[in-house]
Amino acid sequence: MSNVCREIITLQLGHYSNFVGTHWWNLQDASLSYDPDTSLGEIQSDVLFREGQTLGGHVTHTPRLIAMDLKGSLRTLRQEGSLYDASEEASAVTWEGSLMMHEETPAEKNPFLEDLDRLDRGQTLAEDDLHPQPRRSAAAVSLDVNSQLARLQKAYRLEGSVKVWSDFLRLHLHPRSISVIHQFNHDG
């Protein structure tokens, strides 16, 4: 029998376990090596992470995770994620009567999540705004993310702004990782 572990799927069921799991995944993401030339250590990231590709052909590493929570517990995180975001197709309206759209205003992102979005777009963080850097490869940007976040981590005061677990989640999730129970609300 082989003692090699293949894949581990993590189940996070409920709000508390998603808080704990977010800390776990942030730690795993910080230790994830994106460089295929590095030697395998004791921790093999492909056991916990799934490698995939976006529609643009970029390599992604998403956790092997199933997270369940109640409606309203995601705030700024979209249930389907943002990695494999296909452009929204306009559907043909077949209704001949009047049509009224009701849209909820999206929750505001905290500075930590805003900086993560900027890094995902290949931009540099606030302290480097005056000195723009040339465009780099995706691998160079992903390796630089940890160093840039480590420099500015003390500047984030998330104690007052974190309301749900997704307010401090660093990594992207697969579109089928999150399952929301719509019959019940998180806030009561």
Tally of helical runs: 4
Overall number of strands:
5
Spans where pLDDT lies below 50 across 5 or more residues: 128-133
Structural class: alpha/beta
C-alpha-based Rg, rounded: 19 Å
Q: Kindly report the average pLDDT value.
A: 76
Biggest sheet, strands in spatial order? 1-4-5
Secondary-structure element pattern, one letter each: EHHEEEHHE
Cα end-to-end separation: 50 Å
How many domain units? 1
Shape by Cα distribution: globular
* Percentage of β-strand residues: 15-25%
Question: What portion of residues is helical?
Answer: 10-25%
Largest sheet: 3 strands, parallel
What does this structure look like?
The protein is of the alpha/beta class and 188 residues long. It has one domain. The protein has helices at residues 15-31, 45-48, 111-120, 138-152; strands at 10-13, 49-53, 59-63, 65-71, 178-185. Strands 1-4-5 form a 3-stranded parallel sheet, with helices on one face. The longest helix is centred in the N-terminal third of the chain and has 17 residues, at 15-31. The radius of gyration is 19 Å and the shape is globular. It starts with 9 loop residues before the first strand and ends with a strand. 15% of the residues are buried. Its main location: cytoplasm.
Structural topology:
Elements: E1 10-13, H1 15-31, H2 45-48, E2 49-53, E3 59-63, E4 65-71, H3 111-120, H4 138-152, E5 178-185
Parallel strand pairs: 1-4, 4-5
Antiparallel strand pairs: 2-3
Subcellular location: Cytoplasm
Domain Misato Segment II tubulin-like: 6-118
GO biological process, one term: mitochondrion organization
